[in-house]
Design goal:
11 helices; 2% strand; globular; mainly alpha
Length: 262
Amino acid sequence: MFRNYQDVENNVKDTYRKARINQNLQYHKMMMEEYNNRKKQLINIWDALDLLNKFIDLSDPDIELPNIQHLFQSAEASRKDDMPEWFQVTCLIHDLGKLMYIFGNDETGTSMKEQWGIVGDTFILGCKIPESIVYSEFNNLNKDHNAYDKYGIYEKRCGLENCKISWGHDEFLYQTLMNNDHNLPNEALYIIRYHSLYLFHTENEYEHLTNEYDKNMKFWLNTFNKYDLYSKENKPLDINNLKNHYNNLLNCYFNNNQNLYW
């Protein structure tokens, strides 16, 4: 059974509790300013993948292997189903934003020890948090949840692109890709930016804020979720045997330049 948050290690629930306390509009503004003002580091995609070999997601109740294994499991599952090559690349890189931990610190929840600003289900800030979220008992700890109704600071059908989503690896990688050269399609960027927004693509929340574009793109989020969630197992893949295939794909979608500014 996947996404079973009942019988979990204490660190899983504690990570969600801290995120619910700290993730608000003020924190989001601070993290965006920090991202935009920080001097970017040039890191090769394969080096970024290797950095995730040291990272175990404290919010994930399903797998205890380093995050790099999850990425290759997702990519390989989509490859076996003959999904488009851009989709395979998306599966491979979708969690690369978690390397945020090498730039982060405990205070902002962006370190190896404190991950509440990196991992976990995301939610829209500046409005009330739906009760269908994981550990909804923590909602009242959130400043925005207590200050706003379900529309909050937003207009009806404004679209997710005009909403501020809780900060994490999704937004970090999306912003990184937008600041680097690539030819991934809009579907890939949408998956990367919103794949942790389970409230939208799995719980069918936020319909009052989403627009037609979001409704159409939801298909790709649900398709991706099959490979993100149901490919997980605590059995490592031999990554060295897979590198040639994925290196060719990365060269294709990153125009033979896998060195990105993060």
